[in-house]
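Help!! Second protein's tokens look totally different from the first
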Amino acid sequence: MAGVWFDDMHVGQRFEHAIRRTVTETDNVLFTTLSHNPAALHLDAEYMAGTDYGRILVNSCFTLSLMVGVSVGDTTLGTAIANLGWDEVRFPAPVFIGDTLNMVTEVIDLRDSKSRPEAGIVTFRHEAWNQHGTLVATCKRSGLQKRKPA
């Protein structure tokens, strides 16, 4: 177990994740094709060369998955019961092949579970920043988290 118990979390707690990740073309192509997304903006370099971006954009759903996935080891590994929802998902700047992303997670709300006394509900704000210090993704995520065993 590497995650944090609900009882050990506090509002304002920040996790600056040590894992940084450079996004590869393989990441983007594999994620995009496995999710059956045929969009040219993720797969067609010649088409994208003629756009304002001038190059392929990384699939934003991959960016979201990576941003949240990196947080698991520090926050919820072995202590999560369920993901309850996503809110305010935003991509304020594009991610390109070769960008290296740094992720930060903050606890922004904690409350008791009304249906499960052995758990609480935690809300996280996740952020992803590229190597230039530009915020590229953010979201709020709520989950059902285990309390410490008695």
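Here's the second one for comparison:
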Amino acid sequence: MGPEAVSLNTLLEYVDQLDIEDQQYLQEVIQRRVAEKKRSAIARRATQAKTHLTKSRKGTAQDLLADLNG
């Protein structure tokens, strides 16, 4: 955490001081941000998987056995 960071407990105390409408708005904002981060992570993993797939070898079971047997 950087020098301007606050502890989670302190943050929760600040949230408790908000009125219910602001708490609900904050909840919605956090949910959207979490969803966006999850989408970004999924997209990143999909890109990695696609890259790995293009590097993989393709063939039949006979091709695999031939490769294994040298």
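Reply: Different proteins will give different token patterns, so don't panic. The chain has a mean pLDDT of 92.
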